[in-house]
Amino acid sequence: MLDELSLIIPQFHFLRPLWLLGLLPATLLPIVLFYQHFKMGAWHDLIKPEFQPYLLSGETQKKANFSFYLLGFAWIIVTLALAGPTWQQLPQSVHKKIDARVILIDQSYSMLANDIKPSRNARAIHKLSDLLDTFGEGATALVAYAGDAHTVTPLTQDTNTIANLAPSLNPLIMPIPGNNLADAIDKAILLFDNSGLTEGKFFLLTDEINEDQIDQINASLENRNITINVLGIGTSEGAPIPLPDGSFLKDSSGAIVLPTLNRAALVKFASQHKGRYSDIKADDSDIEFLTQATLSDQGGNLKETERQFDIWQEQGPWLLLGLMPILALGFRKGWLTQIMLPAIIITSTLQPNVSEASLWQDLWSTGDQQGSEAFKQQDWQNASQQFNDPQWKASSHYRNNDYQKAVEEFAKDTTATGYYNQGNALANAGQLEEAISAYQQSLNLHPENQDAQFNLSLVEKMLEQQESEQDQDGEQQDGENQEQQDSNSENKNQQNSDSSNDQQDQSNEDQQASESDEQDSDKDKDSAGNEATQQEEEQQQADAAKEASPQQESDLDAQEKQKALQQWLGKIPDDPGGLLRQKFLYESKNASSKTQNNGKSW
Fold first, then answer.
1. Cys-Cys crosslink for 149: which of 15, 145, 216, 420, Cβ 3.0 to 4.6 Å?
2. What's the domain range around 339?
3. What is the pTM of this model?
4. 3-class DSSP assignment, residue 140
């Protein structure tokens, strides 16, 4: 016993020592009881003993004191329990969810066939969205392939990103035609290797498999715990492949290509890799069948890490057992109900204000935890206010379209990723030159960052186009000003000439028409005077417009610059398919792997 105490005492401490401040009100109890006893003692000295039982409430006071003792004892127990007494550490295993999967979607020309409406590719993308809805925890990636493979999104827990990009996929944006599943498998394996994963699931959405690549694929997947589930897209009858010009795809002999669903090869392929196969269905039964295999295999989805963490075992809950007899006595005597009933009524009628709710949340969760919850609910503004981590705060500002604040937070990260994110925020804020500088700094630290290379090239083109349009607008404005000046000069000369001609004609008429009376002559003079006055007013208005033109030109230039910038920024989200096309084309030009399509372009 003494040995155990000698081990407990050095380790004894409180997990939440600030709760011990709650013991201060309990210290007032002896003072109150002493004061009551002092008052009773004074009356005992003044009242005769035979009258004391009738005049002094001694028994009532003793009962009240007993209630005070019970309340004080309960207060101390609850306070100590909340403080979290502990003296023992226990090892705790850490489980981490590593359910990882990669969706491989065929983007060869055969996916344009419309034997299933509206087309194989449209139905495949729809099923991809349904597949994402069934995924729970874990990471998901999307790889599109034709003659070569491309990573649309790397492994991420944010499936919304994949769902937003998937509708932009189309076989017509792929840089190389063909059906190179082997390259797609290698891309998916590389995603696992880069994330330190050795097992997971592949979901293949296709209409056929190049049997010449089976051996290569099997070699790549050897000694890897990877399951491949296949969803067959299409029918056994097949359909022609429509092209944008209205014609159908033809082979080298001029015959119309009629791709069919190679069901037998796909079933065999899925079976070889411990997966399941299903034809595409109108309902969700196909998705449920494919995902059922992954949900039942919990051993592959959960992994217990080799590290174990020691946590302090809290002993406070055991102290609450001492409250049981106190609560029983309190309910029996009724005073506990009298105390609790007003408190319940008050708390039920009064609602806490925002500051109190925030204080309550701060007691139970950190700012990053509150920010993470707001981020999941897409409350970007609240998340940016709650997060303490600068990167998460910056991401929240970015999602809230507050790019300037996002730049300030991203600037705190001097890694390649930090400069890359800073460049994205600067580009969206319209600071193209600063964005180029940030991308260059990112590439200096990580030259192989293809995303930074692509964005740098895109922003440079945007800046060049913007400057070119501004130069054209400036030349056009100068030309318009020059034309206006020439027009004003011509009008002035023409007006002077007309005035001179009118005067000459009037003189000739006076000489020739001697029969005209004075009334007509006066009328002509008044008309000539009015015309001269009108000419002077028009000339003054032209001069005033000429004087105001520099300010108008300045305002117009600023408006044109802002308009050009908004036009270029508007092109980024409006055409995600075009961005994917450029991304895939850039990757294909810089790829070292060779395409394999077995002579087929579909």
1. 145
2. 17-83+315-354
3. 0.47
4. strand
